[in-house]
Amino acid sequence: MTIAGFFAVACYNSIEILISLLNRFKRHDGLYFWSMLTATLGIVLHSLVVLLRYYSLGPNFLLSVLTCIGWYGMVTGQSVVLYSRLHLIVSDKTKTRWVLVMIITNFFILHVPVTVLFLGSNTKDSARFLLAFNIYERIQLAGFFLQESIISGLYIWETARGLKPIFAFKRAIERKVIRHLIIVNILVILLDITLLLTQYLSHFQIQTTYKPVVYSIKLKMEFIVLNKLLLVVKHGECSCMHAMSEPGAAAPRPSYIDSFDNRPFGQLPPSRESNDAIRLDHVSRTTTNASTRTDSRGPQTRRFSLFNLPDPYYTSLKGARDDWTTLAFAGSYTNDARQRWHQLRAILTQTTRICARFGQRSTRTPNKEASQENQEMKHLGWPPYLQETRVMSKILAVFGATGQQGSSVIDFVLNDTELSQQFELRAITRDVDSDKARQLKEKVQVVQGDVLNRASLSTALTGVHTVFAMTTPSFGPDALDIEYNNGKAIADVAVGQGVEYIIFSTLPAVRQMSDGRYTKVTPFDAKAKVEQYIRGLPLKSAFYCPGSFMENFQAQSFLAPRKASDGTWVLSRPSSPTAQLPLLSAVSDTGKFIGAILADPDKYQGKTFHGATALYTWEEVAAILSEATGKTIVYKEVPDDDFKKGLAFEPEMFSETFRFYEEFKYFGTDAEDMIAWAVKNARGRVSSFEEFLEAHPFQLE
């Protein structure tokens, strides 16, 4: 919703600016006109392409190229707009010349490297570019922030320093115009600061869609600033964007003001019309829906306020102030529109309550707020049964609900006295008609959700507060990209649906930890890449990094001990007997680690539980298996080539996996401390390998 709102506001502002440009400018061959037009079209292009990329509605590389083009126009075009008006207040041509040199230099220094890195990060070999891109993108945004701040700061300084005679002799309305010119430029700098903050706080999804909104607002302000400058120069009165003459008022003949005569502020331009002549329709009285009102005493101007800015800013800021969806809709906000907004708010409120009654959405509404909203419903004529406020538990959506991790989370929450009261479970699975899904339906709500179908994900995550997400491995040449895109789809839809907290099942970044020596362990690298993406999203998150599943000794029969000719059983790996491996019962203990996060989400926000009971050497694993089965099982280290010959499925991946285990202890060199911390903070005692085998007898065949 937020992304759609940002897109709507950016497009609304851009279309309004375009209409105003074509309507107000008599001739279309001046620097201000073309820079404003370029920046506006850049905003439109950037907004559309970001939306298309978000929904994967086109070739990724082509959309990436168009994103760069839109960014050029939006950012550099905005700076040229600022530059093109400097001559109105700065008489020193040296200053304006240096500003132009700065803009051109920064174009090559900041745009070109980021373009190369951005396009490179959207190719199959993205790993080589991503880190550098993430760093230089922040440098770029900071550079453009400084550039625009310097220009706006120069404007503020020259206005405050050079317009003292105007403050002394002009009328009150014109002094107010001058103050507003300064305020607008301060707002421009503040908007840039908010954009810089979203970038440096790694809110990727927000900042990519927030950029067009910021630049469209700034452009709209720039248009107002130019008209008001000309207004003061000519001693006339006009409303820069939405002026309408009162019925019956006689309007003077329109005048055409030369906005690009290279002349200091305060000197009237010659009578000739130049390239950027702007048509200003003078009216004796003007009214706008945000800034003035008219009564028997004539037009009166309200005190300047952020919440009295022209549309759609009033709607956007008012919605944020009321803690409702920011930028829910944009447009005129008259008295009639105000009533429609309250009705829409009432509809949204009652829709969530109706859904809650049928188990589709759960809410917690404070009594005071509920009472106030119920009074609103009564005032608007809602039936009594819709005025009821239900207080229900938060919805916890569990992906992979029929698998080992998901089923463990569901069983643990259902059997935990505290968590079962806090959360209402929603199991998400691709096939709701499978045997396991049917069994789940007896305990929890089961819904269909497929990572390849965003619509199904949106439905599945409607009204959800917390998500436990995981991805299943893919295999083949595009395995990493496929699994990453699946995890990204879940995260993106979660953000779009307003999910507050996500717990993601991740794994170590093998390629990064090994400095690129192990590149075939794609299930690990894909999950690690999804984790990094989620950390940059605008929602709270925690992570669960499970060790090697004890269940795999039985499930992956091709890796189980094999019977030798002498009657003994041999567990073979391309690792030394003393290499250590973290073991975990996925079914029994995953819920204990996830339960700890659910019980205290703020404490564990941004942290990772490295789920395992302990580190075991291969010799210890063989001895424990031998004790549990009563069979003689020994461990044997085999050459890597011999190990791969014995595997018919992904031999390179498994070979690199076990070599990585030996070198990095799976979690890293601090694996012992990581596991100890996780076991200490788990919500329950974690099973040892011996206890697991006792509960799940190991079968040798």
From TrEMBL:
Pfam (any one): NmrA
CDD domains referenced in this protein's UniProt entry, alphabetically: NmrA_like_SDR_a
UniProt superkingdom: Eukaryota
InterPro entries: DUF7703, NAD(P)-bd_dom_sf, NmrA-like
Keywords associated with the record: Membrane, Transmembrane, Transmembrane helix
SUPFAM superfamilies for this protein: NAD(P)-binding Rossmann-fold domains
UniProt keyword Transmembrane, yes or no: yes
Span of domain DUF7703: 1-241
Keyword Membrane carried by entry: yes
Span of domain NmrA-like: 393-693
Name recorded for this polypeptide: NmrA-like domain-containing protein
Taxonomic classification: Eukaryota, Fungi, Dikarya, Ascomycota, Pezizomycotina
